Protein: DUF3592 domain-containing protein
Amino acid sequence: MGRTLAYSYNSDELGTEPPKTPRALPNQFVRRIKYTGNVMTLIGIFFTIPFCWTILLPIIGIFCWRKGLQTAKDELLPLELGTATVGEITEIRKDYTQSLNGKSPTVVEFLFEANGQKHVGNVGNIYESVHLTKKVGDKLWVVYMPDEPTKSSVWPPLV
Structure:
């Protein structure tokens, strides 16, 4: 994960192609995607545990917690088991609808081809200054689920 990418369509300059599946992800990264960097999961935990004596807040909390974990699963699955292809960044923007410690995440949107069709994917929950090192038009490795290309992510993971 500490690798940097050079962005050109020539695969030699993209960095190393993602390893064969299954790919092992660092526990700290998985924990961040599922819990510490996942706003929905944190909201769910906050509404569920401290307010367990009420009725309404834990119901809302459990819904948020499950939604956060499902979003994390959809991001982690292609990283662990997905097929690799080359994609291109089409948009980099801040998501001001969420914040963690007063900081809004960056969303990177990318375009890639799978099964003969073009697909759009995105990676959110990036709280680092990715927009300072990446730009629209940059090439990158994309991993996706062949039977469900809507589940995709960038390799190596943007942290």
Summary: Residues 1-12 have pLDDT under 50 and may be disordered.
